[in-house]
């Protein structure tokens, strides 16, 4: 094999390190010698010819796409996304603005209703601020931001609905209260700091509530808002009492024929206490109240069946023990007397059980916060001398601490008799109940103890008092 080297290549110091191009003749076989021309190493390099436009290489397409097309597509996508979310962002800002207006209006309306304590409003305002902070922090996160905005919207809407409901309750209050609306806030708040007596009257009417009507239910409730103590004293409808405003006696139920104030003064004279307010309700109103409360649970001392009252309830069965009663059943339970050996005495006891069950239900948080539904249910069959400011003050007081009240019940007793000297029926012989002076004295003591601020007797002292009474009975 013959190799030809140029002289310049020998003198150059780089010949050993330059790659040498070996040219092989096509006509020669692999065994023939190959001549290498070293001058080919010093020729200027030539770029490979560009591929034809119709067939671009894969590498060139990839390089071109990586250098120019990708940024262009990215910018276009970003611009499209921005333009797409621009109206959505504007809508969200509008929703957030409406939420702010709605939240502020809700807080103002709640304050105007004067139903909730001030610190409740402060808690609601703080909660709204926290939700708004969450909205602000989560704006960059699509899912979380959406959930937060939805929560804020639901909360604000709930507050607005609650305010509308509260305003409806206040409107219903105006229909059932006939008290002096010029009463000041200080006088209204006094009902939450000073003891008072309210007359609970169940009127024997089957239509509209009238001013003058016989009262089948006559209960005095002494309330001390400081000691959280209530005494309920029931007086049978046939009690033979001194009729206020006259020099004669009559059955207590007949006092209602001369107005509710006459009944209040008559009972106040019997027990030696001033009667400050009254609440009057008829049969239909009583049914509506119990139904609006969702029914009540009452313990019955007997198993019995009440007679029916056309238009109100059918004959109703009751078992000894706990009974869940709707409005009609509660009225049947409270009005029945013929099924008991003691007649009207047991009816009075049952009425106290119903009233106590209603009070326990009314003072619960769920009922207090939905008082508008309760008032709307009885607005046509319920009337009270308490002003709307006084009622809202009482509700606000209970909502402020959810205090547990001690409720005591007492029924005065007497003996069956008759009289022809009733003021409303001169010369007619009527059934009356002659008062038992000892039981009347016991009621007076109970009422005075509540009004004077004495604490409720403990369970041990109450048990010892009952044991003493039983021992005295056995001795007699």
Assembly type: single chain
Which sheet architecture does the biggest sheet show?
6 strands, mixed
Distance between the termini: 154 Å
> What is the ordering of alpha helices and beta strands?
HHHHHEEEEEHEHEEEEHHHHEHEEEHH
Q: Proportion of β residues? A: 15-25%
**Overall outline:** elongated
Q: What is the level-2 CATH architecture name of the largest domain? A: 3-Layer(aba) Sandwich
Instruction: Give me the Rg, rounded.
Output: 46 Å
Structural class: alpha+beta
- Number of DSSP helices? 14
Within the CATH hierarchy, at the fold level, what is the topology of the largest domain?
Aminopeptidase
Q: What is the residue-averaged pLDDT?
A: 76
With strands numbered from the N-terminus, the spatial order across the biggest sheet is 11-6-1-2-3-12
Number of strands: 14
Helix content: 40-55%
Supply the CATH superfamily name of the largest domain. Answer: LCP protein
Overall tally of domains:
3
Pick out the low-confidence regions.
1-19, 21-30, 58-70, 461-476
What is the top-level CATH class of the largest domain? Alpha Beta
